[in-house]
Amino acid sequence: MLPVSRAIPRIPSITNTTRHFFSQTNTMAPLSKTHKLNTGDEIPAVGLGTWQSKPGQVEKAVEAALRAGYTHIDTAYAYGNEKEVGQGIKASGVPREKIWLTTKLDNDWHKHVAEAIDTSLKNLDTPYVDLYLMHWPASLVKGNTKEVYNDWDFVDTWREMQKLVDTGKVKNIGVSNFGVKNLEKLLSAESTKIVPAVNQIELHPGNPSPHLVEYLRSKGIHASAYSPLGSSDSPLYKLNSLTKLAESKGKTVQQVLLRWGVQKGWSVLPKSVTEERIKANIDLEGWSLTDEEIAQIDEVHKENSFKVCGDDWLPVKIFFGAGDSD
Ligand code: NAP
Fold first, then answer.
1. How far apart are CA 202 and CA 209, in angstroms?
2. I want to staple 227 with a disulfide (CB 3.0 to 4.6 A). Which of 105, 231, 277, 310 is the partner?
3. From the CA of 51, how far away is ligand 1's center (Å)?
4. Pair type for strands 267-268 and 34-36
5. What is the pTM of this model?
């Protein structure tokens, strides 16, 4: 049996220190909820997403989010905005140790893990990240992203990522876009000594992936929800069942979607570059969804199933259908 990740240095009491800090500087109450990882660390339940934010927007969005009480920022080398994220953190004045910062290893850096993390840390202007994810289980050839290596795959990449934990450059390591099939391969590999702390996957009512979510729970891997609002031009905003439910709660559809994800035990990563939306998206305290309301949202995919991120842009298959990515 695989050991759950061993003890990794923890940042001091994120929830309490953050609450204290923001209570002195903000009127907006921060979401105090966190989810515990298999390392013992606590990941804040709401993080700001930064994918597809245009250059020049990310720094301001990150600064606004941190000032509004966010303690969690999600970025990736592939988004091309790590530098701006770092600048936004500096501009906010929030001390680095109060922030959960996630970035991701890009597909064509799989053979260059040590160099990749150094590049991201330099971009972000920080000595460590709280979570480093393998962005996709796709080891693409450096300089030719239309091909995969034939002598290297994500098991080799994970073997190298595990070495980062002892360097202090990453507090937790995890994966993203892994379905059951690829996780089974990863977890059964001889070189795998650390169970990923997190699998960041597409999760919203149009793609709730119950089978994969249950599999992750059984392995002690935290599910982090990307595209929790259904991404750009989300078809979820106009669904009668959701607009009616939101109205009855006196909340926006977006708040209902995020609260649903948090109550299901996921961390949610809504992206916005609009200050008012950034603030509203973390205003999730003081109310909740009932079990019946959760069950109602769980049903949405039966009539309105959709997926934002497929694998057809990659030269390797990632998703294998029902029961894998659901
Ligand atoms: P999302 O967060 O589900 O939706 C973002 C869209 O919703 C944007 O168009 C945003 O517009 C809009 N929006 C946000 N809050 C709103 C509100 N309160 N009212 C109305 N509209 C609102 O989509 P996402 O960016 O696809 O996913 C979120 C994050 O997950 C990403 O940014 C990224 O960090 C992560 N992600 C990871 C992966 C992966 O492979 N690991 C893949 C996809 C995403 P404005 O910005 O204009 O306000």
1. 8
2. 231
3. 7
4. unpaired
5. 0.92
CA distances from 21 to 26, 45, 127, 323 (A): 9, 17, 22, 43
Site to probe by mutation for ligand 1, drawn from 134, 239, 272, 273 as the one with most ligand atoms within 8 Å of Cβ, is 272
Pocket, ligand 1, Cβ cutoff 6 A: 49-52, 74, 135, 176-177, 200, 226-232, 252, 254, 269-274, 277, 280-281, 308-309
Over its C-alpha atoms, the chain yields an Rg (Å, rounded) of 19
CA distance 239 to 236: 5
Name the nearest CA neighbour of 226 among 198, 252, 195, 192.
198
Give which of 120, 153, 149, 116 is closest to 136, Cα–Cα. Answer: 153
Residue with token string 């790590």: 82
Q: What is the pLDDT along the chain (326 residues), one digit of tens a residue?
A: 333 333 333 222 223 222 222 222 333 434 458 999 999 999 999 999 999 988 899 999 999 999 999 999 999 999 999 999 999 999 999 999 999 999 999 999 999 999 999 999 999 999 999 999 999 999 999 999 999 999 999 999 999 999 999 999 999 999 999 999 999 999 999 999 999 999 999 999 999 999 999 999 999 999 999 999 999 999 999 999 999 999 999 999 999 999 999 999 999 999 999 999 999 999 999 999 999 999 999 999 999 999 999 999 999 999 998 666 65
The residues carrying an active-site annotation are 79
Distance from C-alpha of 34 to C-alpha of 70, rounded to nearest angstrom: 12
Two structure tokens written together for 56 = 């020049």
Residues 6+ apart with CB under 8 A from 121: 127, 128, 129, 169
Phi, psi for 255 (deg, rounded to 5) = -65, -40
State the Cα torsion 179-312-81-83 to the nearest 10°.
70
The ligand 1 atom at the shortest distance from the C-alpha of residue 273 is 46
